[in-house]
Amino acid sequence: MSKKDLLANLWDIGEKVVKSKGFELVDVEFVKEMGNHYLRYYIDKPGGITLDDCQLVSMEIEKILDETDPIPHSYILEVSSPGIERPLKHDKDFLRFIGSLVEIKTFEKIEGKKVFTGTLEDYSDGVVTINDGQSYSIPREKISSAKLKYKWDGEQR
Prior knowledge:
By secondary structure, this protein is of the alpha+beta class. The chain contains 3 helices and 8 strands; from the N terminus they run H-E-E-H-E-H-E-E-E-E-E.
């Protein structure tokens, strides 16, 4: 099974469990770090995720993974919140967070910049519009990463 197929399968498993609990599946990662494989599910809900929510989802996902055994070697399962600066990975994320402060990084410079921090103004036809005092239209395929940006006390935008 290719890594892409494995991730799609792991996404389906997670989404089934997460939706049944009334949560949102934000992302799934399967990575190797310092000699260990990690399977990470990031979940969210209005008002935020609690430790109990993570434990509940982890136990349910673990049951399915034990039954289906999609990963042929050992790994560490982690379920957590995506954090206050959650990633924006899907069309629905860009639409949901219109009006929010975001940070977008691009693969190549657009109007002389590769990092944009400003208000997410719009998302349509695969183009993100962000305003940091100037409006920029960024094609989705040119975005290397996007996330909500939390403005810490005293921090300049």
